[in-house]
Amino acid sequence: MPEHLDGAATARQQIRALHEAWFVASHEKDLDASMAPFHTSVVTYEHSSPLRYTDIEAIREECRRGFDMQSDDFAWTVPDLVVETDGDLAVAWGLNRMANRREDGTEQVMWSRGTRVFKRFAQGWKMIHQHVSFPFDPATGAAATDLEP
Fold first, then answer.
1. By percentage, how much of the chain surpasses pLDDT 70?
2. Which of 48, 124, 131, 141 has the fewest CB atoms inside 10 Å of its own CB, making it the most exposed?
3. C-beta neighbour count of 58 within 10 angstroms
4. What is the chain written as a DSSP string?
5. Are strands 124-133 and 107-121 parallel, antiparallel or unpaired?
6. Nearest to 148 by CA among 112, 102, 122
7. Contact 114, 98 (CB under 8 A)
8. Is the pLDDT of residue 64 over 80?
């Protein structure tokens, strides 16, 4: 295998491993570990207002608020995660599956869309951009959080 292809495969594996660690950190509601993939200069478009987050502490607070709304068995995954790399840049995208148990024991699942851009720095891969969103219902203008793939 040509060296550049082997390097791309390794980079894709590293981005997938980063996501797997991120999923575990989210399940454990470990805020520090959940923030580990973020570069300090990240620009992220979250599910909630404002339109754009650029301050790492504001992003951390948004993450904390999200964890506070979830039950103890919260799980975030991207079952259809696609990763593409080119040199020191990587793009990952797929549908975010966010699930937890309600008080009555039933599972609540919401799906959203997610695209993340990573750059390789001396300390490893860091996310420099994230865009997560819910589609909207054009009839009501409300977020469509009940859609399934």
1. 97
2. 141
3. 13
4. --HHHHHHHHHHHHHHHHHHHHHHHHHTT-HHHHHTTEEEEEEEE-SSSSS-B--HHHHHHHHHHHHHTS-TT-EEE-TT-EEEEETTEEEEEEEEEEEEE-TTS-EEEEEEEEEEEEEEETTEEEEEEEEEE--B-TTT--B-TT---
5. antiparallel
6. 112
7. no
8. yes
Q: What amino acid is encoded at 37 in this protein?
A: P
Instruction: Kindly report each contact of residues 8-15 with a partner whose C-beta sits within 8 Å and lies 24 or more positions away, as own/partner.
Output: 8/85, 8/86, 11/85, 11/90, 11/120, 11/125, 12/83, 12/84, 12/85, 12/90, 14/124, 14/125, 15/83, 15/85, 15/90, 15/92, 15/118, 15/125
